[in-house]
Amino acid sequence: MSAEFTRRFDAKMAAREKALPAARASIRASANAIRAIHRGDFDRAHELMDEARDQVVAGLGAAREPPDVGVAGFLQDAQKEYAEARITEAIVRGEDVPSPEDLGVQVAPYLNGMAEAVGEARREILDLLRRGDVEEAERLLGVMDDIYAVLVAMDYPDAITGNLRRSTDVARSIMEKTRGDLSLAIVQRDLRDALDRHAREVTGKGE
User: Fold this and answer.
1) What is the pLDDT of residues 21-30, one digit of tens each?
2) Within 40-163, where are the H helices?
3) Which of 122, 136, 147, 173 is least surrounded by Cβ atoms within 10 Å, i.e. has the fewest?
């Protein structure tokens, strides 16, 4: 009997030793892809996201037997980070957000990745506001609203959703701060436009 138990644990350790490095490599590639997206270097981002996808596939494949390794936290994190990168690109480029099936990831890490993409959208909005592109920032805020509507509808236990409730709360806080920043930017833009019109009117009357 002990020999059988040893065999099973050896198989689990072997699967873990293959899956863990793949998960770490995927997380690293996804993080670098997100940075490339914010720089506008989408070619590099695609290379990194493809690498992240391949590592996720490799990790899940290695952990297929025994199955409990496949639901380990490190593989869930790899899927979440990969989903976050792909969703962030879609948000920034105004494309349709890919589904879990499109990405080949499980639903819980996908939704948590979607929640974290809200923070990346805020970062993009702040960059847009610094450049004075209020209209594009408003579009991104609308996408954030749509994402939050999906997240808040997931009323299931944390054990099922991978602590999605906490991620959703963080997303809501980020949205509220972003809405305030955008509202202030709009007020400043309108005030600046009004002052410019007044200056033109005064100049016109002086002529």
Assistant:
1) 899 999 999 9
2) 42-62, 73-93, 100-103, 107-130, 134-152, 158-161
3) 173
d(CA 159, CA 76): 13
**Which two structure tokens, joined as six digits, stand for 112?**
């948590």
In sequence order, what DSSP letters do the residues of 19-69 get, joined into one string? Answer: HHHHHHHHHHHHHHHHHHHHHT-HHHHHHHHHHHHHHHHHHHHHTSSSGGG
Dig out the tokens for 25 from the structure: 């490599």
Residue at token pair 């590592």: 55
CB 138 within 8 A of CB 190: no
Report the chain's mean pLDDT, rounded to a whole number: 88
What are the structural domains of the chain?
1-105 (1.20.58.2140), 111-207 (1.20.58.2140)
Structure tokens at 32: 């670098």
